Amino acid sequence: MSLLTLLLSRFSQAATAPFALAQLQLVLALLGLYGLVAIPLALASGLLRPPWRQLSAQSWLQLGAGLVLMPALLEEGLFRVLLLPRALLELGSVAQLAWAALSVGLFVLYHPLSGRLWYPPGRWLFEQANFLLACSLLGAVCVIAYVSTGALWAPVLIHWFTVLIWLGPGDGARDLTDRRSAQRTVH
Length: 187
Fold this sequence. Notes:
Blueprint: H1 3-16, H2 21-45, H3 57-82, H4 93-117, H5 123-126, H6 129-149, H7 153-167, H8 173-177, H9 179-183
Helix pairs in contact: 2-6, 2-7, 3-7, 4-6, 6-7
């Protein structure tokens, strides 16, 4: 089996895996756990700063629609679906942890690389420890969601919702475009 065939098969299986109420409940539980850890850390580090930005319904829709493809679908497709073996749960615990660490590590490394190579507005923020910690936590939660469900849509929803809240009411976009704002997130 060629590498391309393997990757297409992984993506097809993940995209068509059943995604029903049980998977949605897991996604909501993982989002809740992520929020319990990430929100206090983001508030303490300055990555999230009240007051929260108010958005119109149209702004929510535009932002949400724009985030589905990138970062949610493309990043989860790459760092979870194409990278992780479909039978990860059948491997030993050391192998599972190694694959998960590789997935999260590459996901985290991708952000500062993207800031340096093709998304210069994010460079300053994407190199900050507090942002990379939030990425690490998000990556770990997305690995758990994907491995637990086998469905692409579980980590996509988690990633999409997290970035939607951060860029929407959290106004994280100001840190992507304003270095002075991003510098306030460094403690």
